[in-house]
Amino acid sequence: MAAAEGEVRRDMWGQEYRTSSADCAAALDAYYAAFMSFGRGRVAAVLRASAADPTCALAAAHAAHAVAPRDPAGAAAFLAAAKDNLLLKQFPRDILSLKRAQLICFYLGKPDLSLKFVQQVLPKNQDQNFIYGMLAFPLLELGRMDEAERAARKGLAINKNDFWSQHNLCHVFQQECRFREATEFMESCSPSWEACTSFLLTHNWWHVAVCYLEAESPLCKVLEIYDHNIMKELEKSDCEAAEVYLNALGLLLRLYIRGHIDSAKERLTTLLDELKNESIWHAEWLLDLLILWALASMSELKSAHNMLESLKSRVRSMDRNQQQVMQKAIKLAEAAYEYGKGDHMKVF
């Protein structure tokens, strides 16, 4: 039964908001849980919340964030970052807004600001799930590995299935060349990843594969992960294909650079039709760069050239200051294109 109009409720962290619908409240909690754990169904949950109570400002704001297309210019990101900063001062237990702010900091390359945000609210969230994984990541970005490891382990002590803390502890192991610890730890965690988004599931397996590769393990170990743990995600009905391609191509590029060119190209062959499909272009700059390399390396030069020109066109549509900032990205795209073609002199 619907509650009274505008009744004050509390979310799963005790934060107050208003909604007239119990269904909206339940769906918001489901969205929070999925979003914080990189779980599946987060978009569907927040759309249910908004549909259950169209007058709920909180549900509407989260729904807008969930479905909005990415803005390369970053104007909306700056605005959201400012807003989230204010929210965190007023509502220090609103760690979903903290998560959103940290994602924006990541795309803007501001780990120091990301750390500032989490330190700002940490005293009010000492016992909270997720908070220590959120602390560990900017510490990693800043090279503070000992502190990052302590934070990640503290997060896992609260919830052993905190996927972000698992991921961040693996980063520490990988950075410190503790490859055996990394693979054993992550493989022990892997049964829990079936609840993850396509991105984090395949990204965690990407880390495992890279650690085997860096430890000079047999190539078959790396290829087995690619074939059976990363690409199998595409068989799921709720798979986000672009997220899988991001990690699949990232691993194949590493194999290619290491000289395992035949193994990389054999697997790229099966992806070509999907990579030429322009509907997956421009979801992420990193994915675009990887697609550009893959198409060029497989002699799909027309498609690769179209991708490169499309990237340049997107940059030309920005204002002058943004164009200047993005020139390095275009140079990197040109380098990926030339590297794929085999013209290494032009790359450098």
Automatic annotation (TrEMBL):
Keyword set includes Coiled coil: yes
Which controlled-vocabulary keywords does the entry list? Answer: Coiled coil, Repeat, TPR repeat
Using the record for this protein, list the coiled-coil segments as residue ranges, or answer none: 301-328
InterPro entries, per database record: TPR-like_helical_dom_sf, TTC38
In terms of PANTHER family, this protein maps to: TETRATRICOPEPTIDE REPEAT PROTEIN 38
Q: Which family does it belong to?
A: Belongs to the TTC38 family.
Q: What is this protein called?
A: Tetratricopeptide repeat protein 38
- Species the sequence originates in: Miscanthus lutarioriparius
